[in-house]
Amino acid sequence: MRVVESSVITNTVKELCITSNYCLNEDILKALQEGLKKEESETGKIVLENIIENAKIAKEEEMAMCQDTGMAVFFVEVGQDVHITGGSLTEAINEGVRIGYKEGYLRKSVVRDPIERVNTGDNTPAVIHYDIVEGDKIKIIIAPKGFGSENMSGLKMLKPSDGLEGVKKFVIETVDKAGPNPCPPIVVGVGIGGTMEKAAILAKKALLRPVNVRSEIEYVRKLELELLEAINKLGIGPAGLGGTVTALGVNVEVFPTHIAGLPVAVNISCHATRHAEAII
Amino acid sequence: MINIRYVINTPLEKDIICQLKAGDEVSINGIIYTARDAAHKRMIALINEGKDLPFDIKGQIIYYVGPCPAKPGKVIGSAGPTTSGRMDAYAPVLIEMGLAGMIGKGQRNKDVIDAIVKYKSIYFGAIGGAAALIANKIISEEIVAFPDLGTEAIRKLEVKDFPATVIIDSYGNNLYDIGREKFRKI
After folding, report:
1. Average pLDDT in chain A
2. Domain count, chain B
3. Pick the catalytic residue: B40, B42, B137, B155?
4. Nearest by CB to A108, which of B82, B85, B151?
5. What secondary structure does DSSP assign to chain B, as a single string?
6. pLDDT the model gives residue A207
7. Which of A30, A96, B89, B93 is 20 to 30 A off residue A12, Cα-Cα?
């Protein structure tokens, strides 16, 4: 049994909020730089140059890459041998968000109720997905999600007979319909299988994988590459102004599902696709 | 490649609007006003009640943005565009009242495009996500209405060399459609 103080969790979360919003991840930066070489549109090239320059400015001047610093989404893996003291784990995480979004000069973008819509003023509550795992560590992954991209995401309950082609069709349609809105070049997270909500979580988890790392399952790896190629033929391009770099990558996660079902979720992410992690 | 960038000063005159075409790159100087969902809802309510808007809209440009808080010593925090489509329900009324231009990102619906053509307005795109870069083009900031809305308050911004692209011109040409068609292979 290992004891972890909730204040350590709060502090860790605070740092993650700030780092994830200020610093672009290496895999995305590399993908943008490669995209710049491949992009066929002159306007597209200028957009990519500006995005790369923006990341540099944000890191150097210690400010958010994007003003939509997102809803704070967490994946937390709690080792079953950990004992947390000093208060509730959920409250410790929310306090970390509260402090991080204040000290990091990040935007407060959460409303208490989806219909009444009064801003909570501190970007809480966070959306937290917990997993209990073996061991005595706590792994905290933050993936702040802006809603320009989130709003373009979608989910469909396909029939098993729709098959792989049905899945491809839905993913490509979803990206095509989104067009310029999610701030291309995008990263596409796809979840196939499970139940309605499991597919959605798979799609979001898929966005945590670096864009240059392919699935270990052969047919899924092939699917990821085919989807990326097809999406980049849509012509949407950087900022949707027309071009050949519409997506930086497609990550697909799969899970067992019901004999009567084929749920597919598409979580679209922007050219920041922010995430950071820490292990306590 | 020669990249011509037209310098635009606000307030925006109709004859300038009519010279601009979808795809033109511009540098905007002068005063622009910020507003997004909540502020637009309130502005339409004011109009419906026969009251004045918080600022004279004729010839002005509205920038769809909810900025981050400013760090000490800075004018404003990161301030890139939000998705314009959410303001489509409100834009035609404002355009009819004289709103000269809008800056945002993402598609507009048919009602907005029709209003842009009918009343000679224009829609500019700023690069979504280039929020730190854009913040450096904002040289002053002042809340002029709805401070209780925090990031969604109406702000009066003075901008210098604010980079934008004409997405929908006053003739209804739409760069999102033109660009996609040019590079579509599927």
Report:
1. 98
2. 1
3. B40
4. B151
5. ----EEEEESSPPHHHHHH--TT-EEEEEEEEEE--HHHHHHHHHHHHTTPPPSS--BT-EEE---PPPPPTT-S-S--PPPBGGGGTTTHHHHHHTTB-EEEEBS---HHHHHHHHHHT-EEEE--TT-HHHHHTTEEEEEEEE-GGGGGGSEEEEEEEEEEEEEEE-TT--BHHHHHHHHH---
6. 98
7. A30
| ipTM here | 0.95
Whether chain A has a CB inside 8 Å of the CB on B5: the answer is no
Average pLDDT of B62-73?
97
CATH number, domain of B121, equals 3.20.130.10
What residue spans define the domains of chain A? 2-20+65-144, 147-273
Minimum distance, in Å, between the CA of residue A131 and any CA atom of chain B: 31
- Supply the pLDDT for residue B2: 55
Contact A64 B130 (CB under 8 A): no
Residue of A nearest to B71 (CA): A105
The model's pLDDT over B121-180, given as tens digits with 9 standing for 90+, comes to: 999 999 999 999 999 999 999 999 999 999 999 999 999 999 999 999 999 999 999 999
Give the domain extent around B99: 5-183
Residues of B in contact with A243 (CB under 8 A): 179, 183
Residues 127-186 in B contacting A (C-alpha not used; CB under 8 Å): 127-133, 135-136, 149-152, 163, 165, 175-176, 178-186
**Domain covering A2-20+65-144 in this structure, CATH number:** 3.30.360
